[in-house]
Amino acid sequence: MNEVWEWTCGKFEDADKMSSPLQGATMKFLAEWQQAKRVLEIGCFTGYSALAWYEATESTKAEIITLELDPKMIAASRRTFDKYKVNDRITLIEGPAQASLAKLSGTFDIIFVDANKEGYEGYVKYILDKQLLSPHGFIMCDNIFARGMTISTDANPTLPEKVRPYWTECGKALKRFNTFCKNDTRIDTILLPVYDGVTLIKWKPSTFLELAN
Ligand SMILES: C[S@@+](CC[C@H](N)C(=O)[O-])C[C@H]1O[C@@H](n2cnc3c(N)ncnc32)[C@H](O)[C@@H]1O
């Protein structure tokens, strides 16, 4: 994982899209704890987080499906998966995430939502409607603070002007997403104030019982 992190930092100007090593360690902790057998990731980039899921599920030999749209990032992540010989359990599905989601069946124990921020609400709604989340599973959504812009456009005076318009739009979309999470009666949600804001979502116990019966 460290090598991929360093390679990505050296090669991609927008390497800050990648999870940090500390975040990678957190993801590994959660996946080991969860004993996940199937993991879905929306937003692959160079494959760093997919490798974290892979390493964390050595004992359960989980199937990991990761979705990516950008041809440059598809090539980069394929390079990662080939180099580290992890194609036995990682499958990369190319194309827009919403269309890729429609190809999936069964349930996932961990679903990591880390792609285009205006898509989060649609992805999570679809996952819940189609019951792609297993009864004991959780969804983890990254960048919920959008560098502070979800809270207020004044929240981050040092945000570079070059990226401010992008994160401002992300902030608006994530505000709508937060409202969706708060109002959806099927789920419990917690927004952790760590990294760039991480939301965890699980089924409510009542919904869980309905699903189990
Ligand atoms: C934040 S990066 C993912 C980082 C990665 N999960 C990690 O931690 O290393 C988001 C990725 O989502 C991809 N993406 C953006 N919009 C997408 C879409 N509609 N469908 C699929 N992938 C998309 C981008 O090309 C980018 O590689």
Automatic annotation (TrEMBL):
Example GO BP: methylation
Family per record: Belongs to the class I-like SAM-binding methyltransferase superfamily. Cation-dependent O-methyltransferase family.
UniProt xrefs under Pfam families: Methyltransf_3 (PF01596)
Keyword S-adenosyl-L-methionine listed: yes
Protein name: O-methyltransferase
GO molecular function: O-methyltransferase activity; S-adenosylmethionine-dependent methyltransferase activity
Species for this entry: Patellaria atrata CBS 101060
Methyltransferase among keywords: yes
Keywords: Methyltransferase, S-adenosyl-L-methionine, Transferase
